[in-house]
TrEMBL record, chain A:
One of its GO terms (biological process) is monoatomic ion transport. The chain crosses the membrane at residues 29-45, 78-95, 107-124, 130-147, 159-180, 200-226, 238-256, 268-287, 294-312, 318-339, 360-382, 402-424, 444-462, 487-512, 563-582, 594-615, 622-639, 645-663, 683-702, 743-761, 782-799, 805-825, 837-858, 878-900. Residues 603-668 form the MrpA C-terminal/MbhD domain. Residues 776-893 form the Na+/H+ antiporter MnhB subunit-related protein domain. PANTHER family: NA(+)/H(+) ANTIPORTER SUBUNIT, NA(+)_H(+) ANTIPORTER SUBUNIT A. This is NADH-quinone oxidoreductase subunit I. Residues 678-755 form the MrpA C-terminal/MbhE domain. InterPro entries: CPA3_Na-H_Antiporter_A (IPR050616), MnhB (IPR007182), MrpA_C/MbhD (IPR025383), MrpA_C/MbhE (IPR046806), ND/Mrp_TM (IPR001750), Proton_antipo_N (IPR001516). Residues 63-108 form the NADH-Ubiquinone oxidoreductase (complex I) chain 5 N-terminal domain. Pfam families: MbhD, MbhE, MnhB, Proton_antipo_M, Proton_antipo_N. Residues 124-400 form the NADH:quinone oxidoreductase/Mrp antiporter transmembrane domain. One of its GO terms (molecular function) is antiporter activity. It is a multi-pass membrane protein.
Length: 905, 129
């Protein structure tokens, strides 16, 4: 079974290639895959008929107990034969029908993909596995309906079908999960009926699963997508929307019937919705004039009748279900394909233009005749037996059955009329006015309808054959008790036969007076205005409006309001949590003594920050910002963090230069007219945020310091990292992988920012010139050289004393910055002698290379390795630090030179 | 000292957000810097203050009262990355001004959200709602 599905999937993969090479002839090759599957299923018939199901299993998600298990019993076999058999014919048919379409290969692929998914649905024994295939059919069906995506109707129909079937797939999934959970088993074959029906959630399960099945098989009120889906190319309509996919819902209902049936309103719901849908479909079909739409609405009818038959749960009813399923797939597939051929040959599907076609298309005509008779339920066709058993099953039910029988009589009479229109009006009578001169279609196009129609005829005449081999096993699989199966064409003058006669009489009457009946139906005009389609459109618009209404207050696009909302909400929540903890923490906090220098630097930081807020002049703002940063640097120094302090001070220097360089290209900010309320709100949110941060800080400071990582680092810095500067050892050895990521971020930020800062030196553009002051230049020169030397020194000693790659890079950058400002960017480039971006890349490569050394020695990436030639300790962390220096230095220089070189705006 | 550091962090953060809530790109940038400073201060302070010497070990072993090196290492890289972020943000501000000739964040948003001129009016309406 798995091989069959995989084989078809393989055919799907090669389909586009084959189609490119062979065009429509590829169909004959591609049809081999489903044909092989069909033959294999035929070969399994004897075993299944003897009542022994076939099983295959493959672990899929063992942790969740989900397996890809397949089971082939009577019901599955019936469906599998239909899917693979009709599928073979459809592939052949499609090759000719779409022979001139430029995306034929894609079409084959979709079709075969659908076929595999559909086989998966009917064969899967696992609830979740079945669901996955079920959704796959929805998706492939979407692709097939929208195949002619140039047409807006196709797109709309495809979306509608996807939303209805796919959306309710969610309901089905919920139902299946509840079912598996309640039943304690995830496979159909081991679910226990009594446990499930006794469970309090049984109604929920039933409703959810019914919802999924009803949408898939287009039951009222979800039927609206099916006629629209007929916008798909005819082979798709024939295959998906009559023979197979709509029956996936029916399949699942049948599969679950032994588990759910016999109580809990399941039977009643099935009969009610089924009968209602059937009648509605028949009436709507009768009102159509387009042959294909007519067939489409009769296709709404049939799943309705099938659902209803399942609901009867009588011996005859279930037999009728299996027979009707088979009969309908055969004749409806044939009719759809034939209508496609008519369309292909004459260029129209309007009944008004057609007539007398039998002279031009004898083979297609014969196939339609056979299929239409089966459709009409006339003896000795298979459809007749189906109808006969349908009545017999309903009548068994008593008064309710009689009521439904009456409805079904009208429904079947209407179907008979439609069948009459399809055959008599189209093929007999006087010649129609066709847009094209008709011709008989090629063998690939008449073979399918003919074979299916003949099968419908043969199964009716030789009714013993399907009874023994197919129907019996299928009926046993869907009933909750053993059922005796016995098919016959003539069983004496039973009430069913009388009803049948009545149906035929009514049908003929309807046909002869079809104009009058149609007019009578038109009288109920008000009713036709309630179109499902229009309701659907309104629903969709409503959803969009609701979404817009909900989203507009939040998606206003204002940065300020977004930020205010985010920060406000976050502050309130964290304050609510942290405030009690902070008060608690304040009580038992072990604080260190207040040091005057630390306090002073804190105040300096705050003063600078406040200055940024209140100073008007831009240059003053920059100075205040820098003051704040320097204050912070001082603070770091006073709390014994020299490396951090140096870094902070260097970065602050560079920041000031960058901000100043950028701001001189931006106009002076105009003061925003801020209303008093807005200002108050801003202030409130900012204050709230500050409080929240302080509270979180206090709460965390109030607890003892967790963990001993810091102690471990301190203790092992010298023995393992060969360095006395613990901070540096952490950066380049213990946590070097983090650092590697960080310098990568810095480099990437520089690469991203550089093009926006300036476009580089263009030919004709002027490079940034230096200050034209001899005195300044003469002082700068030694100073810059000194700084570069210091940078190297810092790098070298960084492992043991304050310094290291980061600090070295920043100092060096400041040195070159002096050169650039004093002598112009050209001079700075001269000092560098290389593209800064190249330096960055080199740095990253060195850092990563230092890590590889560890790998080569069979240790983890970035493990430190040390040698000491002549007493000088050299190690891979040192190399790594050089990489850090180059990467950061290159990144800063890259941005700086771009910024300097941009022509003054 | 920890309490003072916590309060300073809170106040710096408040000032940073105050600046960022202003609609002007330049002030927003400065707010980002101040907020970054607040965070760095907070991280260092959360490693506890009051050490008697910096985190340098000697051959003799680990002295007592040594500063906590871990937050220092974190903050050191954070400062450098914060600088890269600042320059990147400056670059974006430059670009935004060059494109839209404005430094007011909401004006720029409004202009950037305008439908493309070649879209038919009906479609544009759909995108807006």
């Amino acid at each position: 079974m798995l091989t069959g599905i995989l084989g078809i999937l393989a055919a799907m993969l090669v389909a586009p290639l084959l189609a490119k090479r062979l065009d429509q002839r590829a169909a004959w090759l591609l049809a081999l895959a489903p044909l092989a599957a069909f033959l294999w299923f035929v070969a399994q018939v004897p075993q299944i008929a003897s009542g022994v199901p076939l099983r295959e299993s493959l672990a899929w998600v063992p942790a969740l107990g989900v397996s890809l298990s397949f089971s082939l019993d009577g019901l599955s076999l019936l469906f599998a034969l239909l899917i693979s058999g009709i599928g073979t014919l459809i592939v052949l048919y499609a090759g000719s029908y779409l022979s001139d379409h430029h995306q034929l290969g894609r079409f084959y692929a979709y079709l075969l993909g659908f076929m595999a998914a559909m086989l998966g649905v009917v064969l899967a024994d696992d609830l979740i596995g079945m669901f996955v295939f079920w959704e796959l059919t929805s998706i492939t069906s979407f692709l097939l309906i929208s195949f002619q995506h140039e047409k807006p109707e196709s797109r709309r129909a495809a979306l509608q079908a996807l939303l209805i079937t796919g959306g309710d797939g969610l309901a089905l999934l919920a139902g299946l999960i509840l079912l598996g959970d309640t039943g304690g088993s995830w496979s159909f074959s081991t679910l226990d009926s009594q446990t499930i029906q006794a469970s309090p959630v049984f109604p929920a399960i039933a409703v959810l699963i019914l919802l999924g099945c009803f949408t898939k098989s287009a039951q009222f009120p979800f039927h609206i997508w099916l006629p629209n889906a007929m916008n798909a190319p005819t082979p798709v309509s024939a295959y998906l929307h009559s023979a197979t996919m709509v029956k996936a819902g029916i399949y699942l209902l049948a599969r679950l019937n032994p588990i759910f049936g016999g109580g809990g309103g399941w039977d009643g719901a099935l009969m009610l919705f089924g009968a209602g849908t059937a009648l509605l479909g028949a009436i709507l079909a009768f009102r159509q004039t387009d042959l294909k739409r007519m067939l489409a609405y009769t296709t709404v009818t049939v799943p309705g009748q099938l659902t209803m038959l399942l609901g009867t749960n009588t011996s005859y009813g279930l037999q009728a279900f299996a027979i009707y399923l088979l009969a309908h797939s055969l004749y409806k597939g044939a009719l759809f394909m034939a209508v496609g051929s008519i369309d292909h040959a004459t260029g129209t599907r309007e009944t008004g233009y057609l007539g007398g076609l039998i002279r031009f298309m004898p083979l297609t005509g014969a196939a339609v005749a056979l299929a239409a008779f089966s459709n009409a339920g006339l003896p000795p066709f298979f459809g007749f037996i189906a109808k006969e058993f349908q009545y017999a099953g309903l009548i068994e039910l008593g008064p309710l059955g009689w009521a439904i029988t009456a409805v079904m009589t009208i429904t079947n009479a209407l179907l008979l009329t439609v069948a009459g229109i399809v055959f008599l009006r189209t093929f007999l009578g006087k010649q129609g006015r066709y847009p094209k001169t008709p011709h008989e279609v090629g063998v690939a196009m008449w073979l399918g309808p003919m074979l299916l129609a003949l099968a419908g005829f043969a199964l009716g005449v030789l009714s013993d054959f399907p009874e023994v081999w197919l129907i019996d096993a299928a009926v046993q699989a869907i009933s909750y008790g053993p059922v005796a199966v016995r098919l016959y064409l003539w069983g004496g003058l039973t009430p069913a036969v009388v009803t049948s006669l009545l149906t035929v009489t009514l049908g003929v009457l309807f046909y002869l007076n079809s104009h009058r009946v149609r007019n009578a139906l038109n009288l109920a005009r008000a009713l036709w205005h309630i179109k499902g389609d229009r309701l659907w459109d309104n629903l969709l618009h409503g959803i969009f409006r609701l979404a817009a209404w909900l989203a507009t207050p939040f998606q206003h696009g204002s940065l300020q309001r977004h930020l205010a909302l985010l920060v406000g909400v976050a502050s309130v929540i964290s304050l609510a949590i942290a405030a009690p903890l902070a008060l608690h923490g304040l009580r038992d906090m072990q604080t260190s003594p207040i040091l005057p220098p630390s306090l002073g630097s804190c105040l300096l930081t705050l003063a600078g920050a406040l200055g940024v807020c209140f100073l008007r002049e831009r240059i003053a703002q920059i100075a205040a910002l820098s003051l704040s940063g320097l204050g912070l640097g001082l603070f770091f120094l006073t709390v014994n963090a020299p490396d951090v302090a140096i870094t902070q001070i260097m970065v602050e220097t560079l920041s000031v230069v960058f901000i100043a360089l950028v701001l001189r290209r931006l106009p002076r900010s105009r003061r925003q007219p801020d209303t008093a309320t807005r200002r108050a709100l801003r202030l409130g949110i900012a204050a709230l945020f500050g409080l929240a941060i302080a509270a979180v800080m206090l709460a965390s400071l109030g607890r003892p310091l967790q963990g001993d990582i810091a102690e471990w680092f301190t203790a092992h810095s010298l023995p393992l990292g060969h360095g006395a500067n613990v901070v540096n050892v952490i950066l380049v050895d213990f946590r070097a992988f983090d650092t590697l990521g960080e310098i990568l971020v810095v480099t990437l930020a520089a690469l991203a920012a550089a093009p926006m800062l300036g476009s580089g030196l263009r030919p004709g553009g002027t490079a940034q010139r230096g200050f034209e002051s001899v005195l300044l230049q003469q002082t700068l020169k030694p100073f810059a050289v000194l700084m570069l030397l210091i940078a190297l020194l810092l790098l070298w000693r960084g492992h043991n004393l304050p310094g290291g790659g980061f600090i070295g890079a920043l100092v060096a950058a400041c040195g070159v910055l002096l050169v650039a400002l004093g002598f112009g960017s050209r001079a700075a480039k001269g000092v560098l002698r290389a593209e800064p971006a190249t330096l960055s890349g080199l740095g990253l490569a060195l850092a990563a290379g230092a890590g590889v050394i560890g790998l080569l020695r069979g240790q983890p990436f970035l493990s430190g390795s040390w040698i000491a030639p002549g007493g000088v300790p050299l190690g891979s962390p040192l190399l790594f630090d050089v990489g850090v220096l180059l990467a950061v230095f290159g990144a800063v220089m890259h941005m700086l030179l771009r910024l300097l070189d941009e022509k003054e705006a | 000292m920890e309490i003072i550091a916590a309060i300073t962090t809170g106040m710096l953060a408040a000032i940073g957000i105050w600046l960022m809530l202003s609609g002007n790109l330049v002030r927003i940038l400065m707010g980002v810097v101040v907020l970054g400073n607040a965070v760095n201060l907070g991280v260092v302070a959360s490693g506890r203050l009051g050490s008697s010497q910096a985190a340098f070990t000697t051959m003799e072993g680990v002295a007592s009262g040594m500063a906590n090196p871990l937050p220092q290492a974190l903050v050191l890289t954070a400062i450098v990355i914060g600088f890269a972020l600042l320059v990147f943000a400056l670059a974006v501000a430059l670009r935004a001004h060059a494109e839209h000739d404005s430094l007011i964040a909401d004006d720029i948003t409004r202009e950037a959200l305008l439908p493309a001129p070649d879209l038919p009016a009906a479609d544009a309406g759909e995108i807006r709602t």
